[in-house]
């Protein structure tokens, strides 16, 4: 895949879906399931979660020690990258499956339906911890307008539930360092990182 796309090329991926990154039935235990809002057009074009070059997701995972090698998904994630994430007990899905240029294009109904679908994904995949990347999406998906970031008081389909910041480059008040700190908390809860000490 090329490392750049024209606007017309990206637009051709609108409404496409990106498969979940989950371990197979005989694979490693799913410790931590990250949940994005929905695929962006770059993500749909490369079939790789959080793939836009301005997204800080993978740099934050590396800075936190959640992954042990650099992952550059902008041209499409390699099988080695996917295997590394799975071997660390990490999975990735989205609240809403269809790709858009901006999350603001999603309807309230799509968020609510996505929340129900996420519950089913969590029941099926059985992660220890779920981390939803974006408090606005979490509020919309679960009709919880007063929810705040951090560990949530109620589990999600039996999984410990956290809300963490969205790593999009559009989320300007977050940095790789602040995202790494936020992502480390659910990773510690999931047993991927040692307890803070």
Q: What's the architecture in CATH terms? A: 3-Layer(aba) Sandwich
Count of alpha and pi helical runs: 7
What distance separates the N and C termini? 43 Å
Major sheet size, sense and barrel closure: 5 strands, mixed
Helical content, roughly? 25-40%
**Tally of DSSP β-strands:** 5
CATH class type: Alpha Beta
CATH topology: Uracil-DNA Glycosylase, subunit E
Instruction: Give me the secondary-structure category.
Output: alpha/beta
Helix and strand sequence: HEHHHEHEHEEH
Runs with pLDDT <50, length 5+? none
Instruction: Name the CATH superfamily classification.
Output: Uracil-DNA glycosylase-like domain
Kindly provide the radius of gyration, computed on alpha-carbon positions and rounded to a whole number of angstroms: 16 Å
Sequence of strands across the biggest β-sheet:
2-1-3-5-4
